[in-house]
Known about the structure:
The structure is a single chain. The chain is of the alpha/beta class. It is built from 13 helices and 25 strands. Helix 9 (263-273) links the parallel strand 12 and strand 13. Helix 4 packs across helix 5 and helix 6 (210-218) crosses helix 8 (242-250).
Amino acid sequence: MTSLFPALRGDTADRPALRFGDRSLTYAQLAAATGALAGRLARHDRVAVWATAELETAVAVVAALEAGVAAVPLNPKSGEKELGHILNDSTPGLLLAPPGIELPAAVGHLQRVDIDVHATGGTAPDSAVRDGDPALVVYTSGTTGPPKGAVLPRRAIATTLDALADAWQWTSEDILVHGLPLFHVHGLVLGILGPLRRGGSVRHLGRFSTDGVARELNAGATMLFGVPTMYHRIAETLAGDPELVKALAGARLLVSGSAALPVHDHERITATTGRRVIERYGMTETLMNTSVRADGEPRAGTVGVPLPGVELRLVEEDGSAITSYDGETVGEIQVRGPNLFTEYLNRPDATTAAFTADGWFRTGDMAVRDADGYVRIVGRKATDLIKSGGYKIGAGEIENALLEHPGVREAAVTGEPDPDLGERIVAWIVPEDPQSPPALGELADHVAARLAPHKRPRVVHHLTALPRNDMGKIMKRALHD
């Protein structure tokens, strides 16, 4: 079996691997702890991991991968019904959890194994695991029906992390800081497994804070991973926090993902620190597809170019490929490559529907592509593509335009039925001053002047906050509810 983490068997014994607060492990300690745990897992096909943002989660997942066993990360905030569905669907043989933590009744039927991060005396068993065998089963929060378990093979993890190493010039000398949850691919695969595959280290904040980011970057960390809500908080804080300015200015790489980072926040961070945040694009089912390269043009508002090994195309509604890229024509992204999942667990119907006959995965994301290959996401096909007056309009560019208005703090855009236009554009606004929110006419003129008249909102709703999930993504279906 080829290890996903060569540094566990290399000459890096004393090199720091993981740090969570004041708890840390070197590579030698991590190898000992994961080896001891891996020996207890080998006879199982899948094990569940209670994925808190703690050292134990990292040890558990690495141990499962070293044993050739698929890990099923569980979101500790999931409700009883969702947990019940995931466990009934994935049928894990064990539940790995931090010692002393109280678990909900929904997991009570599983044999529990407490994770000892200081264990010694075991070694990962030799097994004939292949690159195509399952590594993770990550459940996606679908818009309809219960979550589906995307089966990610070992090949997908290795190729994605190696492609990002190429794009970001990521090496064993890099120290990553982040405060992302560990039950999804951003925080777990990129944020934990990524540094370990490189032989570098990660400092997890436990919970994101601008103070924590400033402290770790100023103490030698070289990379920061975050989501747009985190970078928005950074942008808001920079003007009054010289330590944070110094920290970001000295970082080698600032990466944002999981949702589009508004151009306004890009510009504020760059103006204050001289550094540009780069974006990448991926999904649970595909891991990473594109990124702005560390040695490329940091073009704000785009997710860069396809990663090595990834094929990407845009298609029309009838499935025909768009052959000429002009930066304006909107199409659905389809991807193909070794980074893809193999199936939705126990859902052959959904797996078949997700792919074209010639093996392209239908992402459901809408984008435009420039002639030089840069991709700009304009939204989800189901919620962000608005067909108004004969035009196909992406909600994302209107949201960026609205955020440039001084009276707008947060913005979301959706469509709703209109007897004349087909759909009309609806703006959902969190105003800077709730006592004096910008009026519809003012916002419509603002958008029309920046984009085009047919992209102006026809309705505006003022809110105190936008509904967001754990990753900071706006839940647009909840707006209409």
